[in-house]
Structures are given as C-alpha cells and as structure tokens.
Amino acid sequence: MKKILLAGAVALFGLSNAQIAKGTTYVSGQLGYTQNENNNTDVKVESFKILPTVGYFVNTNLAVGVGVGYKNDNTKKTESTGTNPLTITEGKVTESAIVVAPFVRKYWTIGEKLYIFGQLEVPMAFGQNKVEGTSTTTLTTPAGTTTSVSSVSDKSNFTSIGVNIKPGLDYFLNKNWTIEATIGEFGYNTYKQNVDGAKRVNDYNFGLNLTSVTFGVKYVFSK
C-alpha cells in the first residue's frame, strides 16, 4: 500500500524535490510602453517604464533582490471653447520618477521545472509632476483679427511607497532561462506631493485579478 501511495505522489507532483540552490543569481526586469489616444475627448496618454531586476538566493528556494529603474507618464489634452472668441487650450501633465523596488521571493516546488512563488516587495518612487498649459484666444471683428496667448507651468516633487504581495508561477525552460507569470497582487500604496497643504493618497488593492496576468522571462546563473 505504501508503494502505491508513493507511486501516486510521484505521478502527481513529478520530481517535487527539485530545489533552487543557495547562491544562485538571476536577472530579469520589466520594459513597457503603452499609448492611448481618445479622439472623442482629444486626450492622449503615454506611459513608459524600465525596471531591471537582480535576485540572489540566500537559501534554498528563497531569494532577495532589488529592481532599480525609471518610469514616465504623459497626459496631453486639447480643448476648444467658444466660436468668436475662439479659445484653444492645450494642457500637458508629465509624471517622471526613479523607481526602487526591493523584494523577497519564496519558491515552492510543484515539479521538476515548475514552481509557484510568493513575492513581497516594497516599491518606492521618487519623482516630479510637471503641469504645463497654453491658452490661445482668437477674436475676429470688423477691424481685424487679434490673438492672445497665455501659458502656465508648475512643478512639484512627490514620493510613493507601497507594500505588495504577488503570487505567481515560474517554469524553467532549461537551466538558464525561465518564464514566469504573476496573477494580480495584494497591497497598499501611499502617495504624497511635496507641497504645502498636500495630503496623502492611500490606495488598497486586495484580490486576484485574472485580467492582470503579467508574463516575463529571466536568466539564471546556474551553479
């Protein structure tokens, strides 16, 4: 009976004693660009992010690491009001930041090449918000056409700190390359602009969102 149970366990979990050795190092990262342009509202949003990551296994199946990178978000909007005078307002909001994200990741073996993991990370962003706007007013009269232009520009620094837990799967294609996927996240983030009177904005996110699955690859320096 014991032999039957053992055979069933091996068939179900494969070589579930496969471990990632202490001292193993890996590199990965995130690189992304998105653009959304709404011609109904004349709003265009562009986002760019690059975050190289290095991880080191301090113990079997337990890694610590950090990601350091940069992100930039641009939102542009054009709005027209009136006919005569006609006012065209063009606004742009730019948010750019240096991102630092230390983390701890714990693996559990499912099979010879397949693992599940849980990652605790503390993402931090230190950046600047810049708001720019230009308003052009054109007035036509029997005496002629006059145009006036006014503009505004304002800058402020901000800080964002969060604590997130991300579950995921990691599959080893070979001893050096893996494909990983994360499914949603549980976490908390606080955001504050460094200006007088500004209050913190707190964001809580708890739940598995199957529509926010992310995929990535990483290179493992096998021992």
Cα Rg = 25 Å
Q: Could you spell the SSE succession in H and E letters?
A: HEEEEEEEEEEE
What is the β-strand count?
11
Structural class determined from secondary elements: mainly beta
The average pLDDT is: 86
Q: Indicate the low-confidence ranges by residue numbers.
A: 1-15
Shape: elongated
Q: Which band does the percent of strand residues land in?
A: over 45%
Helix content: under 10%
Structure notes:
The chain is 5% helix and 71% strand. With 223 residues, the chain is mainly beta. Strands 1, 2, 3, 4, 5, 6, 7, 8, 9, 10 and 11 form an 11-stranded antiparallel β-sheet that branches. The longest helix is centred in the first third of the chain and has 12 residues, at 2-13. It is elongated. 9% of the residues are buried. The model is unreliable at 1-15 (pLDDT under 50).
Brief overview, please?
By secondary structure, this protein is mostly beta strands. Helix content is 5%, strand content 71%.
Question: Which descriptors would you attach to this protein?
Answer:
223 residues; mainly beta; eleven-stranded antiparallel sheet; 1 helix; 11 strands; 5% helix
Secondary-structure map:
Elements: H1 2-13, E1 25-38, E2 43-59, E3 62-81, E4 86-109, E5 114-121, E6 124-141, E7 144-172, E8 177-183, E9 186-193, E10 201-205, E11 213-221
Antiparallel strand pairs: 1-2, 1-11, 2-3, 3-4, 4-5, 4-6, 5-7, 6-7, 7-8, 7-9, 8-11, 9-10
